[in-house]
Amino acid sequence: MRLTPALTALCLLAAMALAPPALAGAIAPDAPHSPNAEDMQSAYLVMLAIAVVIVLSVNAALVLLVRRFRSRREVEASTIVPGPRTQFRVAALAGALSIFTIVIGVLFGASALQVEPSGERGLSAALSSTAQSGLSLPEGDSKSLRVRVSGQQWIWRFGYPNDERGRTFNETFSYRELVVPVDTTVLLDITSTDVVHTWWVPQLGPQVDAVPGVDTQTWFKADEVGVYEGRSATLSGPAYPTMRATVRVVEPEEYEAYVSAKASEIRSAQQAVQGQIEEGS
Q1: Which helix (H) or strand (E) holds 186?
Q2: Do both 143 and 89 map to the same domain?
Q3: Are residues 142 and 273 in the same domain?
Q4: What is the pLDDT of residue 260?
Q5: 110 phi and psi, to 5 degrees?
């Protein structure tokens, strides 16, 4: 029996999905390093499996029907007229599959919004810093870190909390690279200064739009020290491909040293500018 090109391709796709992780990574998202990113990858794999099953089933049925009812010499091809019972079964199966797909999407989406508390290796922060809308926050002291993320043509700006309640973000900031402590729940307030941008670090969570005048919330908790690269996902002007964020995850002590050094660096630069202004006046 000759397989159709589509069926052959899907057989290869199914084999890759069942292959070792190194090979499966060619069709799956980047390896997740945050609980919500794991939810997104699980939803992706479930939807991929459903799609593969549907297309394989349709192609297999088509091949079997063609072989069984094809015309032969001096024999007229058979005519198939499905009855109401067959139509009902097909409709019921399609409806059940649709409901299952919707339920899976809702469950994984709700799970991704459940903010997990920081772990024992994480940074200790004030409980009030978790006071945000749109996310299901854990009860008790979550020891989370809140960061202000602002997109602009074509760079990302990150504001770190300066006061003990995590409410001031203007004094210490960085561009392009966000530095956070490992095993710490990081809550992001995302907005834009001009047009719509998209925050997306695949290994740390789903895509989130940065909309002018609107605060959008998301979170992640990196489980390993390392550098996680972001992607450009929304056309925001001619230079949008270069607008890629980088998240560097470090130990809590290194994070505190980084923020302290960054604050000192910014103060020194501001004092130097103020001195030049006073001299010019």
Answers
A1: strand 186-192
A2: no
A3: yes
A4: 87
A5: -65, -40
Structure tokens that stand for 50 in this block: 């459903």
Query: Is there a domain that residue 120 lies in?
Result: no
Work out how many domains the chain is built from and give that number: 2
* Per-residue pLDDT at 22: 45
CA distance 86 to 88: 5
How distant, in Å, are the alpha carbons of 66, 142, 179, 215, 221 from that of 182?
58, 14, 10, 25, 7
User: 117 in a domain, yes or no?
Assistant: no
Q: Tell me, what's the pLDDT at 73?
A: 66
- Evaluate whether 146 touches 189 at the Cβ level (below 8 Å): yes
Q: Are residues 37 and 64 in the same domain?
A: yes
Q: Would you say residue 275 lies in a domain?
A: yes
- Nearest-angstrom CA–CA distance, 222 and 34: 5
Q: What is the pLDDT of residue 177?
A: 93
The DSSP annotation for 224-281 comes to SSEEEE----S--STTGGG---EEEEE-HHHHHHHHHHHHHHHHHHHHHHHHHHHHH-
Q: Which of 150, 148, 242, 247 has the alpha carbon at shortest distance from 196?
A: 150
Q: Which domain, by its residues, includes 207?
A: 127-280
Q: How open is the CA angle 46-6-77, to the nearest 5 degrees?
A: 120
What is the spatial distance between Cα 215 and Cα 209, in angstroms, rounded to a whole number?
10
pLDDT value of residue 5: 45
What stretch of H or E contains 159?
strand 155-160
Spans of the chain below 70 pLDDT:
1-28, 71-79, 122, 124-143, 162-170, 281
Q: How far apart are CA 58 and CA 34, in angstroms?
A: 36
